[in-house]
Request: fold
Amino acid sequence: MPDCIIVGGGAIGMLTARQLFLEGVDVLLLEKGPLGGESSWAGGGIISPLYPWRYDDSVNRLAERSKDIYPELTKTLFEESGSDCEFINSGLFTVVEGDSKEIIDWAKSWSIKAEFINDIATIRDIEKSVGDIVDRGIWMPDIMQIRNPKLIKALKASFDHLSIPYQEQTEVEEVIVENNKVAGVRTKQHRYAADKVIIASGAWSAQFSVTQSSVDVLPVKGQMIMYKGEPDLVKRIVLSEGHYVIPRKDGRILAGSTLEKIGFDKSVSSSALEELHGAAVELIPLLDDLEVERQWAGLRPGTEKGIPYICQHDDVEGLYVHAGHFRNGIVLGAASVELMTDIVLDRRPWCDAAPYTLSAQH
Ligand SMILES: Cc1cc2nc3c(=O)[nH]c(=O)nc-3n(C[C@H](O)[C@H](O)[C@H](O)COP(=O)(O)OP(=O)(O)OC[C@H]3O[C@@H](n4cnc5c(N)ncnc54)[C@H](O)[C@@H]3O)c2cc1C
Reply:
């Protein structure tokens, strides 16, 4: 019998299972599809929230901690798996209107390098391909990115390398609770006993009866398109009005993303393609000449303020919730996992855990 079952094998579940395993916990991860096949595969992998100054400190605290963890984590994953997560520095240029002083002060308070630029020649020294609408904004030169499918591949290979137990195509139907204490989980075929269960089921985290009333996570669809370009054609991540362009190492260029609250629907639409392409071409006009190679959608685990749940359930001993990272599961993930691990192992948490409890968000 494992000590701890993790329900959901996205980036959050995989990173959590791996960390607990490394700390000596006997884990079992159960995933209804293939590992990392949902939002964690579909995302942009920007290692910063978009417009981070608009977020609560509790989100930025995790983001800043993760930025310190990823260099070593991606290096270790490479050593374990031979798989490169493409953790690279692209910097992020964000078009902003109005007063930038507050943003610069905010960045200083978090020791984040940020500079306001409103001279198009200087902006083009940073990214030569930008269009005319990119004429003023905030340049953050230290922002990194990870290529999501490569992170998933590296994590999966790390599981195999370290022999971390997991089962794919295994859907958990019920979390078993006896006398207000977790006793395990049930799938169609089996009952798995465990004293601890972590719900890391992304957008699906409210599905279990024990979590329905308290875990406010809703699917928020995000569509993305990908262009086929040459390496270094575009070098920087550029963002304006919620639309962004992310250049990958091999010349692929992603443009995202939509925000759609329409339930568990992952279909892609021609209207989204038009919206994303139109916005991308305004940011980087040369994209108009490139082929759109692929379009896809993912379901973000949405919460109202974007603050994730990282906590023990209020009413059920041994039940933990690690979900609701919304638009920032990759950037928050590494630090969020450290906090979840502290809580599960009953250690003093590395940061104040109060903002991430179920009650804090109701
Ligand atoms: C278009 C888009 C762009 C994004 N860009 C960024 C970005 O640039 N930076 C960033 O940090 N974040 C970004 N995100 C958000 C990020 O991808 C998510 O926050 C993150 O992937 C959430 O990880 P997760 O493991 O919680 O969820 P998921 O990856 O969705 O994993 C949850 C897993 O649980 C499994 N599951 C569900 N129910 C069950 C069950 N009953 N039994 C077993 N398994 C179950 C699912 O199959 C799934 O694999 C983006 C997301 C999208 C869609």
Summary: The chain has two domains: 4-74+149-215+305-361, 92-142+218-302. The CA atoms of residues 257 and 355 lie 27 Å apart.
